[in-house]
Amino acid sequence: MKRVGILGGTFDPPHYGHLLIADDVRTELKLDEIWFMPNYMPPHKENKVTDHTHRVNMLYAAIGDEPHFRVETIELERKERSYTYDTIVLLKERYPNATFYFIIGGDMVEYLPRWYRIDELIQLVQFVGVKRPGYSLRTTYPIIEVDVPMFAVSSSLIRERIQRRKSVAYLLPKAVQLYIKENRLYET
Ligand SMILES: Nc1ncnc2c1ncn2[C@@H]1O[C@H](COP(=O)(O)OP(=O)(O)OP(=O)(O)O)[C@@H](O)[C@H]1O
Ligand SMILES: O=C(O)c1ccc[n+]([C@@H]2O[C@H](COP(=O)([O-])O)[C@@H](O)[C@H]2O)c1
């Protein structure tokens, strides 16, 4: 069985926080690969998100040639709000030889009780929680905790800094910074 970690997200834009947790969880849990899985529309965010084509392009730029990372676009095929429960059911059908680990930050751990069909989902996939500044990993759900250095970066912080013309030089990979500049994302 191939051991696969899934990092689902909006990635608007992807940043070093995402890459750091992906890298550490992979080595800590001895996973074969991490699949970065962008959503078409996040289940719980009301704000408008950047077009998925840009977000996928930024993910490819962020991953570069790291051999253990790939982009999984299954949630973009549905062109609607995706719930993780539906996605995991589909992924397990499509990849019967994989065992999936779903990686979430502390903000999502706190939100778990409100996830769609969470009691069934928790039977289907092993959740892995990583700490995030401002959030605990306290939960009654059986998650595996992986100790990753806390990094207070978020996509919203990056969007805000770009809008205010502040530097984001050390928050996300150079290739993603270039893509954002070339496509004039987040400027207004
Ligand atoms: N700095 C971080 N430390 C730990 N986990 C993180 C960090 N940034 C993102 N994550 C986790 O990665 C997953 C995808 O996050 P997402 O793409 O929504 O980025 P975000 O930075 O949380 O975005 P936004 O600021 O727009 O809410 C979520 O499970 C989130 O908790
Ligand atoms: O299925 C749900 O009810 C659900 C609720 C909140 C978040 N999620 C998933 O958790 C991942 C991180 O979410 P986000 O909003 O931080 O990008 C992403 O893959 C979402 O689809 C899923």
UniProtKB/TrEMBL annotation:
Residues 6-161 form the Cytidyltransferase-like domain. The keyword Transcription regulation does not apply. GO terms for molecular function: ATP binding; nicotinate-nucleotide adenylyltransferase activity. Pathway: Cofactor biosynthesis; NAD(+) biosynthesis; deamido-NAD(+) from nicotinate D-ribonucleotide: step 1/1. InterPro entries: Cyt_trans-like, NadD/NMNAT, Rossmann-like_a/b/a_fold. It catalyses: nicotinate beta-D-ribonucleotide + ATP + H(+) = deamido-NAD(+) + diphosphate. Keywords: ATP-binding, NAD, Nucleotide-binding, Nucleotidyltransferase, Pyridine nucleotide biosynthesis, Transferase. Signal peptide: none annotated. Its EC number is 2.7.7.18. Transmembrane segments: none annotated. GO terms for biological process: NAD+ biosynthetic process. It comes from the Bacteria. Catalyzes the reversible adenylation of nicotinate mononucleotide (NaMN) to nicotinic acid adenine dinucleotide (NaAD). NCBIfam families: cyt_tran_rel (TIGR00125), nicotinate (nicotinamide) nucleotide adenylyltransferase (TIGR00482), PRK00071.1-3 (NF000840), PRK00071.1-4 (NF000841). Belongs to the NadD family. This is Probable nicotinate-nucleotide adenylyltransferase. The lineage of its organism: Bacteria, Bacillati, Bacillota, Bacilli, Bacillales.
